Structures are given as C-alpha cells and as structure tokens.
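Homework help board

Subject: predicted structure for assignment chain

Our instructor gave us this sequence and asked us to write out the predicted structure in token form, then describe one feature. I got the tokens but I'm not sure how to describe them. Can anyone check?
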Amino acid sequence: MTADMHLIATEAKASVTAVCKALGVPRSSYYARRTRKPSPRQLDTRQLDVEIAAIFEAHKGRYGSPRIHRVLRAKRPVSRKRIASRMRALGLRARRPRRFRRTTVTDPTKAPAPNVLGRRFNGWDRPNRAWVGDVTYIWTLAGWVYLAVLIDLHTRAIVGWSVSNRCDTDLALEALDRAVARHAPGPGLLHHTDRGSTYTAGAYQQRLRDMKAVVSMSRKGNCWDNAVAEATLGTIKAELFQDHIPENLVAVRRALFPYIEGYYNRVRLHSTLGYKTPDQVHRQTTARGSRAA
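My token output:
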C-alpha cells in the first residue's frame, strides 16, 4: 500500500469511528449493515420501483398513483398508499391539467337553447344517448390552432374531433360530421355545448335539426354546465402539449390522432368509468345488449 492509500484508509476508518461514537452505536454495527443482504421487503420494494417506473414511462408520465395502482393490483397485492409513497421517492409526478381561458364568443343575434342536460353527466345507460362538445386552443410556433371535440357521456370516448387554424362553425361541423359518420346516433340524441357562436350558427343548428337531436346549451358564463368537455380538453392539453410547443397545425394533428384514437379511447383508464377504458365500456354494453336480445 502506498503512503497516499494508507492515509485515505486511515482517514476513512477514523471517520467511521467518529460517526459511530457520535451516534452511540458500535462500529461493528456499521460494518454489519454494509455486508447484510437485502431483506425480502427491500427486494420487493426494488422490484416495485422498477414496475412503477415502467408503467409511468409507458404512459409517458400521464398516470398518477390511482391509475398505476389499478394496473399493478392485477399482478400483485399492493396498496395505493405504498405506490404513492414510492412515486414520491422516485420523483415521479403525473402531468396535471392547467386552467385555460374560455374560447366562447357568443352571437347576440342567435338565441341559445335551454340547458336540457342539467349537469346529468352520469347515468347514461347506452352510447349515443348524450354527447357534450367544446372547443379549445393550442399554441404552436406558427400561431393558434383550435381543437373541437364531442364526447359520449356513457363511454366517455371522444366520438368526434377536428383541428383548424380557425375557430369557426366549420371546425365544429367537421367534428360533428365525423362523430355522426362513425356512430350513427338515432333521433333524440342529447347534444350539449356552450352557447358560443360556433354552435349557435345556423348551419350547425340545421345539422342538429336534420339529425332530430335535442339541443342543450350551458347557461351564460357557467363552465360547470359543460364540465366533462372542459375536463377532457384540459387532459388532452396537459398530456400532449404541456412540455413542448408543437410546430404547426400538421404537428398538432399528427400528435392528436394516435393519442385520441389509439390511447385515450382504447388504453387510458378513466376514473369516472371505474378505471376502465371507453372501449371496454362500449364492448361491455354491446355484449349486455346482445344477451338481452
């Protein structure tokens, strides 16, 4: 051993001795702790950390402890409290929706429809009985892009959506036309939105009349009347665009398509649905209908 190595070893030994003396524990306990094998609980925690991190990464930071708990409890007995504790220890925190400004611009020449929905967001027993819609904005390097969505209150699936550089009736109509083409709702569909000019416009209202839909609109300035649509838009913006600014409309559309069609409707667990996916709820309802027939 060289003189320098001997000096380092001597100082390390002296430091351990001093610390053990200050803590009132024998030095042998320190060395025993260093050489002791991990306990079964420690090994399980290490494995749990790996599993939590893998799920968190697979969902791109969108899952907090409730959803990770739902995924893991199918594989192993573990409490939500423990998962939350391990996520804090690992520094993992799910993305949260930000508050955003309203995009509603009313047309004083158009009379809004009454609030038929009345915040009855739950209890719809089948798809295509009630849809809620809204529009939000997304900032890009090329300027504002607008997103319109329609959500089914039974499955909570996004049944129709569209994006545009303009916040106008054509944007809302495109989302409606896509939803109708895909899901073919029958007469009596309850269609609820805010009272913005995109929805009170003659062309949009005529399309709803052609569908024989029941038109419902939020009361003036009352965001809670359309809480499901606003919450959905907040989730989309938080989970897709919170950490970066997309380049332009094309980039927004490219990000939205796999997220909505592949992830949000088919993979993402929704707490309102008892931590099922919209696709699962739709298939279960369809299966019950087939058995009843």
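Reply (TA_rk): Your tokens look well-formed. For the description, you could write something like this. The two ends are 87 Å apart (CA to CA). That's the kind of observation they're looking for.
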